[in-house]
């Protein structure tokens, strides 16, 4: 271990695969549809980053960037960067430590932690990782409903091996996501074959106008962090090792 991390692989070790790993928290009272999107608050973003469950310490602040710029994960060193935005009642984090291969369920863990921290919030988390085959995990918290958790490999023929908890249809109905809406967005939910559903797309429909990750000009704060030992071990397993 170096003084700045728990990594065992060198900074130049090649990252294998690509993905999209985010969690969004919408705090009550929920902003209206017509409300202007607030500017990012860097101080609150740093506070949230420092308290997030995968982060051991925020090491450096590197200003703001458009949310759509994202990060290119080429080397191990790139995995130390996160994006965090706090836009009024909406909080978002993009963190490669949320990636998984079906063993640890980090999205579920962090969504549960945030639900305990922010009672009454709407929380949507999702991680899709492609390393030749795609693994997807999603977790939703909507007030008044059981937490929904979905996890598995869409390429898997045996749908009984897909993990699914909660009542997705009830949550979608409560958020105004009709079967027609989902079908029009090409993310229709099939309860008999959850592996055929794009869960990240359904999560965006649940967020509705409060989804930051589709807004090209929204600004986020960029941080270099030291992840926790557990998060680092999981990233090493998912992003570095064959």
- From the N-terminal CA to the C-terminal CA, the straight-line distance is 21 Å
Describe the biggest sheet? 9 strands, antiparallel
Strand arrangement within the widest β-sheet reads 2-9-3-4-1-5-6-7-8
- Structural class per helix/strand content? alpha+beta
Could you give the order of the helices and strands?
EHEEEHEEEEHHHEH
Number of H- or I-type helical stretches: 6
Tell me about this structure.
The protein has 242 residues and is α+β, with helices and mostly antiparallel strands. Strands 2-9-3-4-1-5-6-7-8 form a nine-stranded antiparallel β-sheet, sandwiched between helices. The model has no long low-confidence stretch (mean pLDDT 92). The protein has helices at 42-51, 106-117, 168-174, 179-184, 199-207, 229-240; strands spanning 18-26, 55-66, 81-87, 90-94, 122-130, 134-141, 148-152, 163-165, 219-227. The chain has six helices and nine strands. It is globular. The longest helix is centred in the middle third of the chain and has 12 residues, at 106-117.
Task: Detail the topology: elements first, then pairings.
Blueprint: E1 18-26, H1 42-51, E2 55-66, E3 81-87, E4 90-94, H2 106-117, E5 122-130, E6 134-141, E7 148-152, E8 163-165, H3 168-174, H4 179-184, H5 199-207, E9 219-227, H6 229-240
Antiparallel strand pairs: 1-4, 1-5, 2-9, 3-4, 3-9, 5-6, 6-7, 7-8
